[in-house]
Amino acid sequence: MVYLTILSINIISHGKLNFGLYISSVAKQLRSLESEMKNTDAELTEFCKELNIDTPF
Question: pTM for the full model?
Fold first, then answer.
């Protein structure tokens, strides 16, 4: 959330109020974060399997 706030401040401070571009940029960043979260979840799942414990999600 902080990253998105910084992005919006950067866009506004540079006078680029093209909201189509802004929304596209935010959507791209969200897809990237979602991909990273899936990778992290997979790693955590493997650790939990090795420790023979339930996953937290």
Answer: 0.57
